[in-house]
Amino acid sequence: MTKVELKPWSEYKFTGWVKTEGVESRGGKGAGFRFEAFDAEYTGLTGTNDWQKIEFVFKTGNDDSSILSCLLGLDGPASGRAWFDDMSLELLRSENFNTAVTIDVADKKESMSEYIYGQFIEHLGRCIYGGIWAEMLEDRKFWYLPGDRESPWQVKGKRELFSVDRANPFTGDKTPVLGVDGSGAAGIQQSGLGLKPDLEYEGRIILKATPGITAVKVTLSRGEESQSVTIDKLGTIFSAYPLKYQSGAMTHNASLTIEPEGNGKVWVGTASLMPSDNIEGFRSDVIALLKELNAPVYRWPGGNFVSGYNWKDGIGDRDRRPPRKNPAWQGVEHNDVGLHEFISFCEILGTEPYIAVNAGLGDSKQAREEVEYCNGSAETPMGRLRAANGHPEPWNVKWWSIGNEMYGNWQLGHMSTEDFVRKHNAFADAMRSVDPDIKLIAVGELGDWDRMVLTNCSESMDLISEHFYRQDWHGGGLMTHVKQIPDAIREKAEAHRQYRKEIPQLEGKDIRICMDEWNYWYGPHIYGELGTRYFMRDAMGIAAGLNEYSRQSDMVFMANYAQTVNVIGCIKTNTTSSILDATGQVLKLYRQQFGTIPVAVSGETRPVDIAATLDSEGQTVTISVVNATRDKVKIPVTLLNGTVTGEGELWQVTAPDIMATNEPGRPENVKITGPASVPSVGELTVGPASINLFVFKLKN
């Protein structure tokens, strides 16, 4: 395979030579060439042949690249041997067009739902732990045995005095025990902690000890500097003791050490350490960025994770909640962030919760109880439990999904469509029996799965979920990369329009799409598990996607960018800093400046992606232009049924090149700029590889 750059809206002739020996095809064409994504009269060779020339003609459409494959097995498996040589391309013709558009501000489309700007957080990698949540200590409840390769805790001092209590652990299945005698002591230490300069750090440690222990010293060290909290008068039952430290200079490699003194044993139930500026347990710097995104809804807790998650593990005393192996991903689920914390998170941000229930390994009783825990009065069984855990008033969570990607064999509890249809309806009945006003989202996937679910579950859903991710497995062209996102959105919307024509059970219903996972997903994991970077070229694709959502406003009600922090995230963090990545800048800008009422755009839009909207009061028109070419483009604009008051504003997401990215702790490379003055709506100019929002006030 080789990547080939091409001119969009062009026609090419390909020529190549093939030699074969004993090629046998089973249902295909034998040996030949193919360009990815292009239709052509592809021919192949079977049998034994000396060098033969193969030619075909293809059109590129709006692609500026493709992958050329030399195949032994064109359109089907084949055996034998094949040689390929002397390949060439001839440009036959390119379309000529003059970009010019007409925008009719009176031709209004269905309003965009604000839920298009939703987000998704999952218990995966460093999205919540190591991202949003402020806890600095990994594996603070000792799922892994200290000293083992997987554990972040190392045993210090006399290892023979270290032991584990599995008979009466504080939480989980084991508690480390530190021994001390006249020959020395066993301690435990965790390194790699990040400290900001001149900030207090506070926490707690839960201990019990035998009577001979005189003290436990808990030391926070940074290089040669250290501070210790000495805990004396320990008892023989577990008790919590406060920790407090003051940082000096910034570091990413501080350590916390726990050491006993005296003679005897100390049980370390758990420990916690957070920066004092945390907001109800969440990182203040990340919360600030999340407020800039201003997402109206957050989906939680998964994702694949939810299909193995028991929500009851995440309620009650946070220190006593059991650690679990993450059921779907790597690492440990600490259960520090459960329902109470998630709702608190939403309240801090002023956003709505959207909760997925476990329809994988879970059952309808578990789902019904979860709805009752969230929405039931304090007189209901689960409402009483919620009140006992500190929140007497119900949360009245509106948005609920029944499962996640249950069509996939990677999903815990994966089942056939027929079985899931029955399970979905049973879950819906159980959940609505507690609160008939909740909104339910069904698992969707284009094709037979969707048809079966929509046919049999239309009475027990309000929206249907669809997911997509796109990669860089293409010819490398910028237009090819960017167009993947709007193409995917359009494909989903058009399929559901067709369902409405084909499925009688949808007559009179308006079941729209909840695109509750959408994004690019490719590249090395820089920020932990699935912690990919995003570049200016990805930001352009997300901007084009938002343009497409405006064009599909009648079919897509909610969209949840997946995910928010670190894990394929629009925010990236390290232990001390955080930043909006390239895609985050787009989501922030469009949430602030893009309108909500799409209006008609006609004319020759090529080679750019262009959409126009009004604000909710019809006082401004915003024109979004994504230019995925390498050239400056001038766009004559005719405005119908409206007049602008004068100069407009230009807001942009800018970067030095299409592979620019943002990294925590460093200046932004991909950033929002504006407003710059725009003299007239009559002709707009956009630079190469650019994201542009032109905003004009309309005369009343």
Distance from first to last alpha carbon: 58 Å
Structural class: alpha+beta
Q: What top-tier CATH class of the largest domain fits best?
A: Alpha Beta
CATH architecture of the largest domain: Alpha-Beta Barrel
Gyration radius over CA: 29 Å
Beta-strand proportion: 35-45%
Oligomer class:
single chain
Would you give the CATH topology of the largest domain?
A: TIM Barrel
The stretches of 5 or more residues where confidence is low (pLDDT under 50) are none
Structural features, described:
It is a single chain. The chain is an alpha+beta fold. It has four domains: 2-94, Jelly Rolls, CATH 2.60.120; 100-112 and 599-697, Sandwich (Immunoglobulin-like); 119-134 and 281-591, Glycosidases (TIM Barrel, Alpha-Beta Barrel); 153-275, Galactose-binding domain-like (Jelly Rolls, Sandwich). The protein is 17% helix and 39% strand. It is built from nine helices and 38 strands. The strands form seven sheets. Strands 10, 11, 12, 13, 14, 15, 16, 17, 18 and 19 form a ten-stranded antiparallel β-sheet that branches. A nine-stranded mixed β-sheet has the order 36-35-38-33-32-31-8-34-37, with helices on one face. An eight-stranded parallel β-barrel has the order 9-20-23-24-25-26-27-28, surrounded by six helices. The protein is globular. It starts with a strand and ends with a strand.
